[in-house]
Write a structure and sequence with these properties.
The complex is a heterodimer of chains A (186) and B (221).
Chain A (H helix, E strand, L loop, with lengths): L2 H21 L3 H4 L3 E5 L4 E3 L3 E11 L1 E4 L10 E11 L4 E2 L6 E4 L2 E4 L12 E2 L5 E9 L7 E6 L10 E8 L8 E4 L3 E2 L3
Parallel strand pairs in A: 1-12, 4-13
Antiparallel strand pairs in A: 2-3, 3-5, 5-10, 6-9, 7-8, 7-11, 10-14, 11-12
Chain B lengths: L2 H8 L4 H6 L3 H19 L11 E4 L3 E3 L3 E11 L1 E2 L4 E2 L4 E12 L5 E2 L1 E4 L2 E4 L8 E3 L5 E8 L9 E2 L4 E11 L7 E13 L9 E18 L4
Parallel strand pairs in B: 1-15, 3-15, 9-15
Antiparallel strand pairs in B: 2-3, 3-6, 4-5, 6-13, 7-12, 8-9, 10-14, 11-13, 14-15
Classes of the chains: A mainly beta (186), B mainly beta (221).
């Protein structure tokens, strides 16, 4: 084989290998969770949990009905949701819920003891409660993507409930009250 | 003229000699590699990376790549009843009040797991904030300042949070009027566990800031 041909073939094979490498899905892509998406008020049925975000509020403070010491003032996104198990009892896992705004990920605050974080969901028994997220100060616009994860990380090949809302559209009272989860009247 | 030169001059190269003879591609590759290594050496890429530690006073904010840190004050006590901690014989509890702002785009747990990030901010091999001149005994305990909640704080992106952290340290390490707290360099490091590429830990490096803060002493917290 002539030298020029060898270079040409070698370069071609290298480029082809690069193409194969770049077009091969990563492990994360091949095992990515399956999104179940919607907006406020939509009943979203995932594999283990059915979730409806009923309302959302941006507030400067959170008042926890049962807390000994109140969480600090700040920019708080408080969502009210109704949830139940689809087939059998499962931990709600709402402590792992994330909100992504402008590329920043915030997890449900552990500073609001009454929030909907430590409950077990039963099939056919919807519960209503609140989750609070402390956002960077002054975050009052942009699309917030709420991701309900059953685990601390995105589950592999499992469904993940996603609710999107526009922060600019939310009411902005001085304070939002968080009450312990209770049976829903639905 | 040597044997090799005679063979080259005669143009009669055997397989071995042909392979041993350097062609222009070899020289180009050698020059490129040598140039690359030389440039890396000139830019300091082959030397040890050293970081100058900055001295920071109490109540002064220092911004690292990962977080803003202000260390306010410290106290040495024998027990913290609210946190159910008691110092062992020969040790005391060094309790430090500090304010932290997460500058990253993911939450950082003081000790545990949040949004795919595993961190132990105040304890262990990859501790980011720790006493500068002594080695703590066991694990640190952190909590939100002004609360009796003893769960490990989670620092949310862009949110400033005041916390207290207690380390158990040798008693002779907290005899002076001041105590030094170190902030180490920390870089997020992605790693794969069963194809979960979102797992992230913090890799720590040299001390980049040293906070000297007043130390008060008490019998119990």
């Amino acid at each position: 084989m002539r030298r020029g041909t060898a270079w040409l073939v070698g370069t071609g094979l290298t480029l082809a290998a690069c193409g194969v490498s770049l077009s091969t899905p990563t492990g994360m892509q091949t095992t990515a969770p399956i999104p179940v998406s919607g907006g406020v008020g939509e009943r979203l049925v995932a594999r283990e949990r059915t979730i409806t975000v009923d309302a959302a509020t941006l507030a400067d403070a959170v008042v926890d009905q049962e807390a000994v010491s109140q969480p600090p003032p700040g920019t708080w996104l408080v969502i009210r949701l109704t949830a139940e198990a689809t087939k059998e009892a499962v931990p709600a896992g709402f402590a792992y819920t994330q909100v992504v705004v402008d590329g920043r990920t915030t997890v449900a605050s552990d500073r609001v003891p009454s929030s909907f974080t430590r409950v077990t969901l039963q099939a056919g028994v919807p519960l209503t409660g609140e989750l609070a997220f402390q956002l960077p100060p002054g975050t009052d616009r942009g699309i917030a993507e709420i991701r309900f994860l059953p685990l601390p990380t995105a589950p592999q090949l499992d469904s993940i409930t996603i609710v999107r809302l526009d922060l600019a559209d939310l009411p902005h009272p001085p304070a939002a009250t968080v009450e312990p989860p209770a049976w829903s009247d639905r | 003229m040597g044997a090799r030169s005679r063979i080259l001059a005669s143009g009669r190269l055997g397989d071995v000699e042909r392979r041993a003879a350097l062609g222009p591609e070899d020289w180009i590759a050698a020059i490129v590699v040598t140039g690359f290594i030389g440039a890396a050496a000139l830019l300091g890429g082959l030397g040890d990376r050293t970081v100058e530690s900055v001295d920071v006073a109490a109540d002064t904010v220092y911004s690292s790549e990962l977080l803003d840190l202000t260390v306010h004050d410290a106290r040495a006590v024998d027990a913290l009843p609210d946190q159910y901690i008691e110092a062992k014989a020969g040790t005391r509890l060094l309790v430090v009040r500090m304010t932290i702002t997460d500058r990253w785009d993911l939450p950082i747990s003081a000790d545990g797991y949040a949004a795919g990030v595993t961190t132990s901010l105040f304890s262990g091999k990859h501790a980011v904030v720790l006493p500068a001149d002594t080695t703590p005994v066991g694990l640190a305990t952190g909590w939100y300042a002004g609360t009796e909640n003893s769960t490990a704080p989670v620092f949310q992106p862009g949110v400033t949070t005041e916390v207290e952290v207690a380390w158990q340290v040798p008693a002779n390490a907290v005899e002076g009027d001041t105590v030094a707290i170190a902030l180490r360099q920390a870089t997020p490091k992605h790693f794969e566990v069963f194809a979960d590429e979102r797992s992230i830990m913090l890799a720590t490096g040299d001390v980049e800031a040293r906070f000297e803060v007043p130390l008060t002493k008490g019998d119990a917290g």
